[in-house]
Design a protein that fits this description.
By secondary structure, the chain is α+β, with helices and mostly antiparallel strands. The chain has four helices and four strands. It folds into two domains: 90 residues, no CATH class; 38 residues, no CATH class. Helix 2 packs antiparallel against helix 3.
């Protein structure tokens, strides 16, 4: 039995890449949300991400699946960077973060200093903020 399964999976994609994990997460969220809906036919919508994930998992076109995952990663990369930046700022209890009105760069200043004049080291613009 195990040999048959192993022989079946040889040459298939069989990877838990980021796109497959996102599809599983989306399917779980849809299942949870649609469990509160009384319409039985809407529950089939939550199966779609699981079916797509299974088709990708069992696909023999490995290059195409890797290209799909690369495209997905390039789409979520800006969001990932934004979340990492914001969570790092939220953990920093000693500094306050402001965006420069001139160049829109993020500037870090010490907290609890009252009203201070901040000068951007990149564009040289000065502005006043309360820390």
């Amino acid at each position: 039995m195990m040999n048959k399964l192993r022989d079946f999976l040889i040459g298939r994609y069989c990877r838990n890449d980021e796109l497959n994990l996102a599809l599983v997460l989306l399917g779980c969220v849809l299942t949870l949300i649609l469990s509160f809906v009384e319409n039985r036919y809407l529950h089939f919508i939550s199966w779609i991400p699981f079916i797509i994930m299974l088709v990708r998992f069992l696909s023999k076109n490995i290059a195409k699946r890797q290209a799909e995952n690369g495209k997905f990663l390039s789409l979520i990369e800006p969001w990932k960077k934004f979340l990492v930046k914001k969570t790092g700022q939220m953990k920093d209890k000693e500094h306050k973060y402001y965006n420069c009105p001139g160049c829109s760069r993020t500037l870090r200043v010490p907290k609890n200093r009252g009203k201070i004049k901040i000068s951007c080291p990149h564009c040289g613009r000065e502005f006043t903020k309360r820390t």
